[in-house]
Design a protein that fits this description.
Blueprint (H helix, E strand, L loop, with lengths): L1 H20 L11 E2 L6 E8 L7 E10 L4 E10 L7 E10 L4 E4 L1 E4 L3 E11 L2 E11 L5 E11 L3 H26 L1
Parallel strand pairs: 1-3
Antiparallel strand pairs: 2-10, 3-9, 4-8, 4-10, 5-6, 5-9, 7-8
InterPro entries: Ice-binding_C (IPR013424)
Organism: Massilia rubra
Protein name: PEP-CTERM sorting domain-containing protein
């Protein structure tokens, strides 16, 4: 019986020591930020302080599409001396305001220079957010920066007006040609 109690005590102690030595990553995400879109473009970014090694972040940048649909393009990057310092960007994603994933970005480069890009066609009217995710790989500070561009998608009525205008120009050109030949 004494041997059994010792075995149980050893198991409890081993379990407790395993649980206490496991390091859990802290979430060091910044508060969601408004993305000030001026002339269909905007810059964004975040910085993180020293001593955050192993901690993760998922920073959100909110914006709205108003009036007409827009195509959306984004790029984000972080630069460090090597792949063992600063941060590692692990994702770039576009979500609706309700948290529905619209599209995920593509990793263009990793290591000392992390680059991610993202494209979304014909975003409808509404509210969205861009999320940059990552992990601090060392105790040094780190930061990332990026740019977005929104390009209006012409409405079908615009195409109709353009075709009508081209038809009028064709008619006038043909009429002038007929007058010159007479």
């Amino acid at each position: 019986m004494k041997h059994m109690k010792s075995l149980i005590a050893a198991a409890v102690l081993a379990t407790a020591s395993l649980g206490s030595s496991a390091a859990f990553a802290a979430d060091i995400s910044n508060n969601p930020q408004a993305l000030p879109v001026l002339d269909n473009t905007a810059n964004f970014g975040s910085s993180f302080l020293l001593n955050n090694q192993g901690n993760t972040f998922a920073d959100k940048f909110r914006f709205s599409v108003t009036r007409v649909e827009h195509d959306f393009d984004a790029i984000v990057s972080s630069i460090t001396r090597n792949d063992k310092t600063g941060m590692d960007i692990t994702g770039l994603s576009l979500f609706s305001s309700t948290g529905t994933l619209i599209t995920s970005g593509t990793q263009e480069s990793t290591g000392a220079v992390d680059i991610w890009s993202l494209r979304a066609d014909s975003l409808g009217l509404g509210n969205y957010y861009l999320q940059v995710s990552g992990k601090m790989v060392s105790g040094t500070a780190g930061s990332f920066g990026g740019t977005v561009m929104l390009a209006p998608v012409p409405e079908p009525e615009t195409y109709g007006m353009m075709l009508a205008g081209l038809g009028v120009l064709g008619f006038l050109a043909r009429r002038r040609k007929a007058v010159k030949q007479a």
